[in-house]
Design a protein that fits this description.
The protein has 147 residues and is an alpha+beta fold. It has 4 helices and 5 strands. The chain has a single domain, classed as Hotdog Thioesterase (Thiol Ester Dehydrase, Chain A, Roll). Helices cover 19% and strands 35% of the residues. The protein has a 5-stranded antiparallel β-sheet. It is elongated and about 55 Å long.
Length: 147
């Protein structure tokens, strides 16, 4: 069983620079056709200071953590028995190319179902920009199969 003492545990914060080239690549890879995500002039014409971060791209940036497996390692979770359970995003403001985003991850909950056959770890990540403004909250649930 995953030790419940880690509920509320904060992981070390880290920062990631939002690069325009990666935004364009992600937009193309996800089939985005809106020029605001691909062209600097179109983004500025739409009132953005630079290319905006496409929906769900913050999840990619979260993987830029110095140790993307830190929570898994902390909790002793065998990656061969892990499933991606849920993912959600709550946006508070736009992020753009050139922003430096700070990611603060917290283990929000650990619980089990089916008599412990499935254990769930809920992670909440607060994202803020270089001005300290709250950009988004990311929520992810990882499932550990014990049976």
């Amino acid at each position: 069983m995953i030790d419940r003492q880690y509920i509320g545990h904060n992981m070390p914060a880290f920062e990631v620079v939002v690069e325009a080239g990666r935004l364009r690549f992600f937009a193309k890879a996800t089939g985005q056709t809106d020029a605001v995500y691909l062209d600097d002039a179109a983004a500025r014409a739409a009132g953005h200071p630079a290319l905006p971060v496409p929906p769900t791209f913050l999840f990619c940036l979260e993987m830029e953590s110095p140790d993307p497996a830190a929570i898994r390692n902390l909790l002793g979770m065998d990656y061969r028995r892990l499933l991606h359970g849920e993912q959600g995003f709550t946006y508070h403001r736009m992020a753009h190319a050139g922003d430096v985003l700070r990611f603060e991850q917290r283990i929000a909950d650990i619980y089990d179902k089916k008599g412990g056959a499935l254990e769930f770890v809920e992670r909440i990540t607060r994202v803020s920009n270089q001005r300290g403004e709250h950009v988004a909250d990311l929520r992810a649930v990882t499932v550990l199969r014990n049976a």
